[in-house]
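Exam prep: given the inputs below (a chain plus 4'-phosphopantetheine), describe the expected output before reading on.
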Amino acid sequence: SNSHEPHASNRCVFGERCGSALVDCGKRSVAEQPQSVVAIYPGSFDPITNGHLDLIRRSSRLFDRLIVSILRNDSKQPLFSLSDRMEMLRDVEVDCFEGLLVNYAHSRGARVVLRGIRAISDYEYELQMTHMNRRLNPEIETVFLMANDAYSFISSRLVKEVFGLGGDITELVPASVLARMRDRAKQLNPLRGES
Ligand code: PNS
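Solution:
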C-alpha cells in the first residue's frame, strides 16, 4: 500500500518495537465530557496588537467561549482609557476586570486562563503568575499558545515606543488602532501632532 496514506488500522506502523502500541487513551464519551469550556484571555491590551488578534483568532477555535478581559490598571498609567481599549476589539466578547484574575475568572465560570508566549523571556513571568494563580485557585488552568513567529517580536510597549518616535507600525496593529494612536498623539501633544 501507499506509505503516505494515513494508517487505516489502529496499530502503530512500527509494531511492537517502539512501545507506542495504541492502548485505551481514556478518552471519554461525549456524554461524559464536561460542559462548555469558557476561557479568559486577560491582559493590559494597551493597545491591542496584531499579535493579540492572532492569539484571539487561534484560541477561539479551541474553546466554546472566549472572553477577552482587560485589566483596569489605572496605576500603570495606560496610554488608552479602559473604554478606548475595549472599543478597539471587534467581533469578540470583551470585558474588563480588577482585583485577582482567578476570582474574576471564577465569577465568569471560566476554567481556563489563556496567555500567549513569544519568547523565553516571557516564560519566567508567566511561570510565576501561573503558579501563583494555581495556588490561589487550583481549579483554573492556565493554557499557553505560542505566538505566531510573524508576531513574536511585537509588544504593546514597543509599538507605543516606536510610534512615539515616528517609526512605522502599520503592520503591527490593526488600522483602527493606528488611527486611535494618531488621535491620542494629537490629544496629548496638540502642537506637534503626529509625524
Ligand atoms: O498584558 P499583561 O500586562 O502582561 O497582563 C498581566 C495580567 C493582567 C494578566 C496580570 O497583571 C493580572 O492577572 N493582573 C490581575 C491581578 C492579579 O490577579 N494578580 C496576581 C497574578 S499572579
